[in-house]
Design a protein that fits this description.
The chain is an alpha/beta fold. The protein contains 17 helices and 29 strands. It is globular. Bound molecules: ligand TSX and manganese (II) ion (MN).
């Protein structure tokens, strides 16, 4: 079927025309409009089981769950092949690879020419966010990958309801995707923010292929958000319910390998649970926020599922994630046990018989699961999933948290003095690399607001956009910075992390309510040891000093590094951010003398 069902002469004309245009270019054998129904999903799965794209897992332990093995050279996002194509190079900024839009289209259309011969072209209408929310935005992905369709069905609100909304609104983000030949030399992920268009070729993997996620909900949406006055952020959203039954919502940005999904699904320590504290999961990766009529920021999770990293997920680190993925889950590039259960490093039970490539497991031939192996699962399967995640109005955000993995310098938690300082704290974010990401361990990388790979425009303009929210009538969240990864002189972690992070979240919310103490320092407000509930958390004197103190000399050097980093963006960098940095540097120098 070449056109959307029952749509002649409607506001779907633009969509129908685009689909025909793409079909003329890519030459598919057939076109399938996806309605998101169970029967459609079952037919897709049947095809993929037949051709080996999906391997059914043990039906007793993991009903309706599958393993997908990707091409071994197609296992992660590819930043060096990811482009932002704006008319002006400076609009993409030093934080993006740029190509002129005409060149980008020519390059991509050359790759797409005839690429779907003999294949089915799937047309996937989807909605990012609750289907009836004014904060949500729609898109259509055209793909030749049934694996992408199955994942998009879990990760987005896909199908008939999204198509109806697109018909009502008449606008949508266009995403064109083909796996091509999975040739790393013929692979590009290109974004055309001015046209609300994405073209992705040559990869079937997650962030490169599920275009609703990083491509739409972050790179294109960040551009849309700037023009429309909202924020598209790489943040988890959680609800923290206190014993009085009041829930505060927190949005938090961390670079990769800091445990964002674990924090989003946190289980409070035993004593807190008995007292009635609860953590509700709204989202684990992306947050769209906009000011409401009361001046507060209201947030939705644009996604409907979790595309989480499997290795390290265990009953100890994240029982809610583990509970979520016992059924109706697609696993990608994990290992397998002898009885066909998914297995990965850090799972803590069972042992692998096959590695992620499908070879017999050999402990000398690398890990069983690829370090970037994933599970795809509906958020509704998470025991801590918040009912408010489906609220079309979104949830009001009380606190924004930035964080990174820093073995030294950065204390457990501090609070920014005001919004502009908080924006600087986000802009200066950095994290030390782990082996999983790069091979080079412990190197500090700046990753402003965890958006380095995902901001669809110039970071200087992005910081200016953030600063602009501090306007008349705004009731903005407080901004905090955390570091769960401070190490002692012996190289061991000083903070227990995981569930005990709730103690830090509790302090933040009490700060928001004006019920917790702190000391003002040049870097922000730091809790004294007695301001955080540490009952049952024995800390050495070194741990107290390093988690709750700060080293002026070392911070002076850090501020110097932050200043140089801001300068890399040239004169477009907002002066307000530079003067924040100078204000802090001067205050540090004054108190040192
Ligand atoms: O996710 C993590 N969080 C956030 C949890 C809500 N991780 C795992 C990071 C890799 C994705 C952490 N690792 C955290 C953390 O707070 N903290 C640490 C460091 C750490 C590791 C092991 C221990 C303690 C701290 N183990 C013991 O103390 C026994
Ligand atoms: Mn992410």
């Amino acid at each position: 079927m070449a056109v959307a069902p029952e749509s002649a002469g409607s506001r779907l004309d633009a969509l129908n025309q685009w689909v025909l245009e793409v079909a003329r270019l890519t030459r598919p054998e057939r076109i399938q409009w996806c309605d998101g129904s169970d029967s459609e999903f079952e037919a897709l799965v049947e095809r993929m089981e037949a051709d080996g794209t999906l391997l059914p897992l043990n039906p007793d332990t993991h009903p309706r769950s599958w393993l997908h093995r990707s091409h071994p050279e197609d296992v992660a996002r590819v930043e060096h092949l990811t482009f932002v194509c704006t008319s002006e190079r400076d609009d993409a900024g030093p934080n993006n690879h740029w190509m002129a839009p005409a060149d980008g289209h020519a390059r991509m259309d050359g790759l797409f020419d005839g690429c779907m011969r003999g294949r089915t072209m799937y047309v996937i209408p989807y909605c990012m966010g609750p289907i009836d929310s004014p904060l949500s935005r729609c898109g259509v992905e055209i793909t030749d990958s049934p694996y992408v369709v199955a994942n998009m069905r879990i990760m987005t609100r896909m199908g008939a309801a999204a198509l109806a909304r697109i018909e009502r609104e008449g606008s949508f983000v266009r995403g064109l995707h083909s796996v091509g030949e999975l040739d790393p030399d013929r692979r590009f992920i290109m974004h055309f923010p001015e046209e609300l268009t994405i073209k992705s070729f040559g990869s079937g993997y997650g962030g490169n292929a599920l275009l609703g996620k990083k491509c739409h909900a972050l790179r294109i949406a960040s551009h849309q958000a700037r023009t429309e006055g909202w924020l598209a952020e790489h943040m988890l959203i959680l609800g923290l319910e206190n014993p009085e039954g009041e829930t505060h919502y927190i949005a938090a940005a961390f670079p990769s390998a800091c445990g964002k999904t674990n924090l989003a699904m946190l289980i409070p320590p035993e004593g807190y649970r008995q007292d009635g504290w609860k953590v509700w999961t709204v989202g684990d990766d992306i947050c769209w926020m906009r000011p409401g009529s009361d001046g507060r920021l209201y947030a939705i999770n644009p996604e409907a599922g979790f595309f989480g990293v499997a290795p390290g997920t265990s009953m100890a680190s994240n029982p809610n994630a583990l509970a979520s993925i016992q059924r109706d889950t697609i696993f990608t590039n994990v290992g397998l046990t002898a009885d066909n259960q998914p297995w990965w490093e850090g799972l803590g039970v069972g042992e692998p018989a096959f590695d992620w490539r499908g070879n017999a497991y050999d402990c000398n031939a690398g890990p069983a699961a690829h370090p970037n192996s994933r599970f795809t699962v509906s958020a509704r399967q998470c025991p801590s999933y918040s009912a408010e995640a489906e609220n079309p109005a979104g949830v009001p955000i009380s606190a924004i948290v930035f964080g990174g993995r820093r073995a030294s310098l950065v204390p457990l938690v501090f609070e920014a003095r005001d919004w502009a300082h908080g924006v600087l704290v986000g802009a200066a974010m950095g994290s030390e690399t782990t082996a999983a990401a790069t091979g080079a361990v412990g190197v500090m990388r700046r990753d402003p607001m965890a958006m380095k790979p995902f901001c669809g425009y110039n970071f200087a303009d992005y910081f200016a956009h953030w600063l602009s929210f501090d306007s008349e009538g705004a009731r903005l969240p407080k901004i905090f910075h955390v570091n769960w990864f401070r190490k002692g002189d012996d190289g061991k972690f000083l903070w227990p992390g995981f569930g005990d992070n709730l103690r830090v979240l509790e302090w933040m919310i009490k700060r928001v309510e004006g019920r917790a103490g702190a000391v003002d320092t040049p870097i922000g407000a730091l809790p004294r040891v007695e301001d955080v509930n540490l009952d049952g958390v024995p800390l050495t004197a070194e741990a107290r000093d390093k988690l709750f103190g700060f080293d002026r000399q070392a911070w002076l050097a850090e501020l110097d590094g932050i200043g140089s980093y801001l300068d890399e963006y040239g004169p477009r960098m907002p002066a307000a951010l530079r003067s924040e940095q100078q204000r802090i540097a001067v205050a540090l120098a004054r108190t040192t003398a």
